[in-house]
Design a protein that fits this description.
Radius of gyration: 20 Å
Number of strands: 17
Order of helices and strands: HEEEEEEEEEEEEEEEHEE
Largest sheet: 5 strands, mixed
Oligomer: single chain
Strand order of the largest sheet: 6-12-11-8-9
Distance between the termini: 44 Å
Strand content: 35-45%
Shape: globular
């Protein structure tokens, strides 16, 4: 067990008493995503996280060898969704044969990585809890989401909509849910308080309806994107 996980276990042992801290459960949840009343086959990239109520825990420490990478390739971000603990880093390598300029100026962590060329990389530390919408200042079609959470208890759905949250101790939690295609007000309506007890491993099924939601954005200067220019530094091979 990593030292950070051991420390969290000790905290729960003090708060909950002997025995209960060891009764950590692997929780399951299920989501389905609908569009126009029809269930979609792909229900991946929904996130559920549980925040303890009445207890303040330090977020898990990120292991240096496990820093996630948001790769820029074929004018897309791969993957399109990453969850990190507050204080964790994300790497932004450029694998395209031209320049990128990654930025986030909306909610969450605000940053601007500037122009950087093929084969180089940048790092961002996410010290602010929340949802960061990631864009490129050159290629308007590029977008991704990074969620920084202050809890170790979270999971991301697979294509079937199955979500697993490992090693969750008994207690009271605020449940929050995110999906890029669902309107924020619809997601807030799903927030709820839940109580985890021994033997309680399924925390619910959630039906999500896709919105005609496209986060309209301009470039980092607040202007409309320029038309791609093949002769510009953005597209020239370094």
């Amino acid at each position: 067990m990593h030292s950070s996980g051991y420390c969290r276990l000790l905290v729960w042992a003090v708060v909950l008493g002997p025995g209960l801290a060891l009764a950590q459960a692997t929780l399951k949840a299920r989501v389905e995503v609908n569009r126009g009343g029809h269930r979609l086959k792909d229900a991946s990239n929904a996130v559920i996280w549980l925040t303890p109520i009445g207890i303040t825990l330090d977020p898990p420490r990120q292991v240096a060898s496990e820093i996630p990478r948001l790769v820029q390739k074929n004018k897309q971000f791969h993957p399109s969704l990453i969850v990190v603990p507050v204080g964790g880093k994300v790497e932004f390598p450029n694998h395209d044969p031209f320049f990128h300029n990654v930025f986030s100026l909306f909610e969450g962590e605000r940053f601007d990585l500037g122009l950087y060329e093929s084969g180089t990389t940048r790092f961002v530390q996410f010290d602010k809890r929340g949802i960061s919408y990631i864009f490129c200042n050159i290629h308007a079609e590029m977008s991704a989401v990074i969620i920084a959470v202050d809890t170790p208890y979270y999971g991301i759905s697979d294509e079937r909509g199955e979500i697993t949250l490992p090693r969750v101790p008994p207690g009271r939690y605020e449940l929050q849910l995110f999906h890029t295609s669902v309107a924020p007000d619809k997601l807030r309506a799903l927030n709820r308080e839940i109580t985890i007890t021994e033997g309680n491993s399924f925390i619910g099924s959630f039906s999500l309806s896709e919105s005609d939601l496209h986060l309209a954005h301009r470039n980092k200067y607040g202007r409309d994107y320029d038309r791609p220019d093949p002769d510009s530094p953005a597209y020239a091979r370094p």
